[in-house]
Design goal:
The complex is a heterodimer of chains A (about 110) and B (about 230). Chain A is mainly alpha-helical. Chain A has two domains: about 1-45, no CATH class; about 55-110, no CATH class. Chain A has helices at about 5-25, 35-55, 65-85, 90-105. In chain A, α3 runs antiparallel to α4 (about 90-105). Chain B is mainly α and about 230 residues long. Chain B has a domain at about 1-155. Helices cover about 75% and strands about 0% of the residues of chain B. Chain B has helices at about 1-30, 35-45, 50-60, 65-75, 80-85, 95-100, 105-110, 120-150, 160-180, 185-200, 205-220, 225-230. The chains are: A mainly alpha (about 110), B mainly alpha (about 230).
Chain lengths: ~110, ~230
Amino acid sequence: MNMHSLSIIIVISGVTVLLRFLPFMLLGRNAKVPNFITYLGKRLPYAIMGMLIIYCLRDVSFRSYGKWLPSAISVAVVAGLHVWKRNTLLSIILGTICYMLLVQYIFV
Amino acid sequence: MIIKKAFVKTLPVMAAYIILGMGFGILMDDKGYAPVLSVGSSILIYAGSMQYVAVSLLTDGVSLWYAALMTLMVNARHLFYGIAMIIKYKDMGLFKPYLIFGLTDETFSLLCEDKEYPKDKKNIRRYCFFVTLFDHLYWIAGTAIGALVGSLIDFDSKGIDFSMTALFVTVFVEQWLTSKEHRFALTGLGSAALCLLIFDSSIFLIPAMILISLMSTVFYLSGNNTERNT
């Protein structure tokens, strides 16, 4: 096995682990967590989910219908289904099938 | 019982991780890397999108500094998960290091809401541990399948990666329906969308996270004291 490849994997792992531990190392030691952090801990998940949705859709382009309509329709299906049934598994499975059919058969 | 509860909770992630893990395994196999390296990556790195980036870093044979910088950019969002989980992970005992290590996008999305946590402390720890462990195992198993037998499976999986988007949309909708506070949800959506319009898609998360932090500070400072203390 190539040593350089192994080194790259170890560096990527190290930086990822560091990023995950950093907030806990910097803020977790104090017995009393600052109010602002408690506030962020409660509210930030809402903002992060919104950010992650955009992150997943980052390669969507508006140059042609086929590049954005499948995502737009499928996101609407997932959101609509979820408001209606509140069943996470159902929303994800049907939404993904919808997207796969759209990109494989309709907007090829 | 706790194990079963955790398992059921991770079902939406199972399909996504096995398929996406397979994708990574197949890609690595395709580029000529041994299964031990791809499975090792999934055990040690355990960060989906970064591992896909890693494939091109490996084939390009980039410097270690470049690899570190790239990881910093792609995975900086994990800082946010940590901040959001500091309180919840405060009393996790011996499980804590592993829970922090395994805090991926999906695991975070399953554990950031504590409404479904078990009632007593000991069971909360085990619940969080098993949710994290199951997700990690799906990812490793997917990679192993992809690296060993992936090229033999004939199945058009184009578009299957939408399951990740779908997971985040359901969590977003669930949070929206159970909360009266929508400023943060809209800030996350809006900041990311705005930064994606202005910046390149490979780096837009960094300015988006700065903007979200600024807006959160403004909301905190403008909030009344009763809200600040909750």
